[in-house]
Amino acid sequence: MMIKIIVAGPRGNMGKEAVSMIEREADFELSAVVDRKYDGIMMKEAEGMASLQVPVYKDIDKCMKEVNPDVLVDLTNPETGKMHLRKALEHGVRPVVGTTGFTDDDIRGLTSLAEEKQIGAIIAPNFAIGAILLMKLSKMAAKHMDDVEIIEQHHDKKLDAPSGTAMKTAQLISEVRDEKKQGHPQEEEAWAHARGAEYEGMRIHSVRLPGKVAHQEVIFGGEGQTLTLRHDSLNRTSFMPGVKMAVEKVMKTTGLVYGLDQYID
C-alpha cells in the first residue's frame, strides 16, 4: 500500500533528510510539504528545498484538505509541532512528530483526541534506533544501580532543554527506581544550577555547542564501580530508519504513542 506523506519543515536539516528518505522508499509518496515561508509553488522553485515537482503550502489546513494525506511528518519546533499534531488529528491524518517539549497535559489532551478520532499518532523524542536502545538499556540497568546522572549534548540551535530524549530516559528509569536524593545530604551549589536539573533525585545536564548533533550519556554509580551507556548521532541520516519505522507503525496504530521504545523489544 502506498502511503501518502506530507512533511512540515522541509528546509530544516531533519526535513531535508526526511524528504530524501521518502523519495527513496517505494511504498512512500511525498504528496506535499508545509513551510512557513513559501506557498503556492513547487519545491524545486523554493530556495533551500529539494528539486522536486511537489507542492508547497503555508496553510496546513488547506494542505490537508486538498492533498488528503495519510501521514504528516512534522520536524519543525515544539510550538508548531504541537499545533500541527492537533490539526492532523482533527483532519483524520496520522501524525508523526519529531519535535519535543510536550507537557504531561499536552500528552493527555492529544491522547484523548487520537482515541476519539480512532487513528494513530506518534511523538518521538528521538528517531535514532541506537538512542532508543540506550533508553531501554538504561531502564534495565536502573533496576540494579539506582544512582544515575544523564548528560545530553546537542547543537546550539536546539530550543529546549533538557532534550526530550533525556526526559524520556529519566521517565523510563523512574518506572523501576524509587525516588531518592543523590549526592551528599548537605550538598550546596556555589553557583546556581551547577548540579543540573533534577528529576526524582536524578541529575540531568544539558550541553549546547556548535559542532554537536545529538549525544547522550547515562552514568550509573555503585559501590566501587560505574557503568556508562552512551549514544552518538554523528549526522542526521541516523534518524531516518526511525522516521521510516514510525510512518509504517502509525498506519497500524490507534491512539497516541509517546516514544519509539514501545515498538522495540
From TrEMBL:
<dbReference type="GO" id="GO:0009089">
    <property type="term" value="P:lysine biosynthetic process via diaminopimelate"/>
</dbReference>
<keyword id="KW-0220">Diaminopimelate biosynthesis</keyword>
<dbReference type="GO" id="GO:0019877">
    <property type="term" value="P:diaminopimelate biosynthetic process"/>
</dbReference>
<feature type="binding site">
    <location>
        <position position="155"/>
    </location>
    <ligand>
        <name>(S)-2,3,4,5-tetrahydrodipicolinate</name>
    </ligand>
</feature>
<keyword id="KW-0028">Amino-acid biosynthesis</keyword>
<dbReference type="GO" id="GO:0008839">
    <property type="term" value="F:4-hydroxy-tetrahydrodipicolinate reductase"/>
</dbReference>
<dbReference type="GO" id="GO:0005829">
    <property type="term" value="C:cytosol"/>
</dbReference>
<protein>
    <recommendedName>
        <fullName>4-hydroxy-tetrahydrodipicolinate reductase</fullName>
        <ecNumber>1.17.1.8</ecNumber>
    </recommendedName>
</protein>
<feature type="binding site">
    <location>
        <position position="35"/>
    </location>
    <ligand>
        <name>NAD(+)</name>
    </ligand>
</feature>
<feature type="binding site">
    <location>
        <begin position="9"/>
        <end position="14"/>
    </location>
    <ligand>
        <name>NAD(+)</name>
    </ligand>
</feature>
<dbReference type="GO" id="GO:0016726">
    <property type="term" value="F:oxidoreductase activity, acting on CH or CH2 groups, NAD or NADP as acceptor"/>
</dbReference>
<dbReference type="GO" id="GO:0051287">
    <property type="term" value="F:NAD binding"/>
</dbReference>
<comment type="subunit">
    <text>Homotetramer.</text>
</comment>
<feature type="active site" description="Proton donor/acceptor">
    <location>
        <position position="154"/>
    </location>
</feature>
<keyword id="KW-0560">Oxidoreductase</keyword>
<dbReference type="InterPro" id="IPR022663">
    <property type="entry name" value="DapB_C"/>
</dbReference>
<dbReference type="Pfam" id="PF05173">
    <property type="entry name" value="DapB_C"/>
</dbReference>
<comment type="similarity">
    <text>Belongs to the DapB family.</text>
</comment>
<dbReference type="InterPro" id="IPR022664">
    <property type="entry name" value="DapB_N_CS"/>
</dbReference>
<feature type="domain" description="Dihydrodipicolinate reductase N-terminal">
    <location>
        <begin position="3"/>
        <end position="127"/>
    </location>
</feature>
<feature type="domain" description="Dihydrodipicolinate reductase C-terminal">
    <location>
        <begin position="130"/>
        <end position="262"/>
    </location>
</feature>
<feature type="binding site">
    <location>
        <begin position="164"/>
        <end position="165"/>
    </location>
    <ligand>
        <name>(S)-2,3,4,5-tetrahydrodipicolinate</name>
    </ligand>
</feature>
<dbReference type="InterPro" id="IPR036291">
    <property type="entry name" value="NAD(P)-bd_dom_sf"/>
</dbReference>
<feature type="binding site">
    <location>
        <begin position="124"/>
        <end position="127"/>
    </location>
    <ligand>
        <name>NAD(+)</name>
    </ligand>
</feature>
<feature type="active site" description="Proton donor">
    <location>
        <position position="158"/>
    </location>
</feature>
<keyword id="KW-0520">NAD</keyword>
<keyword id="KW-0457">Lysine biosynthesis</keyword>
<keyword id="KW-0521">NADP</keyword>
<comment type="pathway">
    <text>Amino-acid biosynthesis; L-lysine biosynthesis via DAP pathway; (S)-tetrahydrodipicolinate from L-aspartate: step 4/4.</text>
</comment>
<feature type="binding site">
    <location>
        <begin position="98"/>
        <end position="100"/>
    </location>
    <ligand>
        <name>NAD(+)</name>
    </ligand>
</feature>
<dbReference type="GO" id="GO:0050661">
    <property type="term" value="F:NADP binding"/>
</dbReference>
<dbReference type="InterPro" id="IPR000846">
    <property type="entry name" value="DapB_N"/>
</dbReference>
<dbReference type="InterPro" id="IPR023940">
    <property type="entry name" value="DHDPR_bac"/>
</dbReference>
<comment type="function">
    <text>Catalyzes the conversion of 4-hydroxy-tetrahydrodipicolinate (HTPA) to tetrahydrodipicolinate.</text>
</comment>
<dbReference type="Pfam" id="PF01113">
    <property type="entry name" value="DapB_N"/>
</dbReference>
<keyword id="KW-0963">Cytoplasm</keyword>
<feature type="binding site">
    <location>
        <position position="36"/>
    </location>
    <ligand>
        <name>NADP(+)</name>
    </ligand>
</feature>
